[in-house]
Design a protein that fits this description.
This protein is an alpha/beta fold and about 300 residues long. The protein has two domains: about 180 residues, NAD(P)-binding Rossmann-like Domain (Rossmann fold); about 120 residues. The protein has 13 helices and twelve strands.
Length: about 300
């Protein structure tokens, strides 16, 4: 499969590297210093758990050539950047499928309308940080890579893409309602980001703040309850199970995560890089839970009270 990865940040780089290893023809679209790093050093990935470091030669461009043909375009950019990708995507006349790989928030309809039947949606299962030309990453084993058609159907192309990602080392699930899944994930990640903002985006410090972690846990639990009561059955099962545990046990789990390297790799780095995205997602989440009619006082407190 010939794949254009539109964005060479952590997620784009990790998935590009693994797809390259699996034998696919991958082109990375990057700009400025990231493009210079790729052209000078190659694609440098370091597994933060094993320490294994790989360097791969990868085609890297600032714009796709007008006559270039792809089977798939992977778009792992932040929600506030998505609309700006449409100029590139709509100029491509190769009929390639386009997988928006992250929370699309309030631009989902715009993306689907602009691209018609080309659009697919999903979410990655990796995190990490960029350190110069090196991407230090972790695969998040507790979460599968998610895929979904806009209408929820399980099509031949979505199954084919699932197979491609599985073979590249990313266990992948197909959601019957990917937009509901993404909203459920928002209810999980936004409270974590806002709790981190309250402590200077310092994950180890958050681990020492039981009151803030309690507020974070209660906020997500309220959001899950409200969304589920309104018919959202796509909230990730492992997260539903975690947040059904007694609050003290959920806090203990997150204390272990935030006190170690996973706190920064899973959440800290992205929260630091994406405050605008988190604010957009927070507004989307607040609107969604208000429409359910269920009270979410801890969520409102976390998202609206100044730090």
């Amino acid at each position: 499969m010939r794949i254009l990865v539109l964005g060479a940040g952590v997620i784009g780089s990790v998935y590009a590297g693994k797809l390259l290893e699996a034998g696919h023809d991958v082109v990375l679209l990057a700009r400025d210093s990231r493009l210079a790093d790729l052209q000078s050093h190659g694609l440098v990935l370091e597994d933060a758990e094993s320490g294994i470091r790989t360097v791969q030669l990868v085609a890297s461009v600032s714009e796709p050539a007008p006559d270039d043909l792809f089977d798939l375009v992977l778009v792992p950019v932040r929600s506030e950047q998505l609309a700006s990708t449409l100029a590139v995507l709509t100029a491509m006349t190769d009929g390639s499928d386009v997988l928006f790989f992250g929370n699309t928030g309030n631009v989902t309809a715009e993306l689907s309308t602009a691209l018609g039947g080309r659009a697919l949606f999903g979410f990655p299962a990796a995190g990490g940080i960029r350190d110069g030309p090196t991407i230090r990453y972790v695969k998040i084993r507790q979460q599968k890579t998610m895929l979904g058609e806009p209408d929820g159907n399980t099509t031949l192309r979505i199954r084919r893409l699932q197979h491609v990602l599985d073979e590249a080392g990313f266990p992948t699930l197909i959601s019957a309602d990917i937009h509901a899944w993404l909203l459920g994930h928002t209810a999980f990640v936004v409270p974590i980001a806002f709790a981190l903002y309250r402590v200077g985006i310092d994950a180890p410090r958050l681990a020492t703040e039981p009151a803030m972690m309690r507020l974070m846990v209660l906020a997500t639990r309220e959001a899950f309850t409200a969304l589920h009561a309104a018919g959202n059955d796509e909230i990730p099962a492992n997260l539903r199970a975690l947040y059904r545990l007694p609050t003290v046990l959920v806090i203990a789990y997150w204390r272990r995560v935030f006190s170690g390297p996973r706190g920064e790799l899973w959440f800290g780095a992205h929260s630091r890089a994406a405050p605008e995205e988190m604010n957009v997602l927070a507004r989307d989440l607040q609107e969604a839970v208000r429409h359910t009619g269920h009270p979410t006082p801890n969520l409102e407190r976390l998202l609206t009270t100044p730090a």
